Amino acid sequence: MSIQTGDKIPDVTLKVMGEKGPVDITTGDIFNGKKVVMFAVPGAFTPGCSMAHLPGYVVNADKIKEKGVDTIVCMAVNDAFVMDAWGKAQNAEELLMLADGNGELTAAMGLEMDGSGFGLGQRSKRFALIAEDGVVSFLAVEPAGGIDVSAAEKILEQL
Fold first, then answer.
1. Residues with active-site annotation
2. How far is CA 8 from CA 19, 31, 42, 130, 137, in A?
3. Could you tell me the keywords of this UniProt record (predicted)?
4. Is 114 exposed, middle or buried (0-12, 13-18, 19+ CB in 10 A)?
């Protein structure tokens, strides 16, 4: 069963790129006491994610933060090196590029996708959520192949 509105974000340790390499970050570090928008993509550098999903959040980062959002998180089941390189390639300095390398948070939220047919293995479904102090206040999960309900413009409407 997937996470729902009103549920707490599971406690998981993930990775982000630090000055000297990947460093641990917990969901508590990210979400506790903050208003956070998090969106997840099936894979960094993939066409839909790179041409439509992530760019929408990059372009709208200031507008999202003006609505009281402390952190905008882009998450994928990729490693911290890939997430860092993708963030730099997409000028995503305003976003936290979060690596769920083992898919632990994705699985704990029940939002995994089997991309084996495309050679991707287990990945995250495409989704976006708003969380306040670690509790989900809005969740939008895309149907297969879609980039609509989790787009930055749709999240702005919910803030």
1. 49
2. 30, 10, 22, 11, 10
3. Antioxidant, Oxidoreductase, Peroxidase, Redox-active center
4. exposed
CA distances from 12 to 41, 106, 159 (A): 18, 10, 25
For residues 158 and 105, give the distance between their C-alpha atoms in angstroms, rounded to a whole number.
23
Closest CA to 95 of 50, 60, 128: 60
| The token pair that represents 109 in the structure block | 């939220």
Q: In this structure, how many other beta carbons lie within 10 angstroms of the beta carbon of residue 148?
A: 12
Nearest-CA neighbor of 3 among 137, 133, 132? Answer: 137
Per-residue pLDDT of the chain (159 residues; tens, 9 = 90+): 799 999 999 999 999 999 999 999 999 999 999 999 999 998 888 766 667 788 899 999 999 999 999 999 999 999 999 999 999 999 999 999 999 999 999 999 999 987 777 767 687 898 999 999 999 999 999 887 778 889 999 999 999
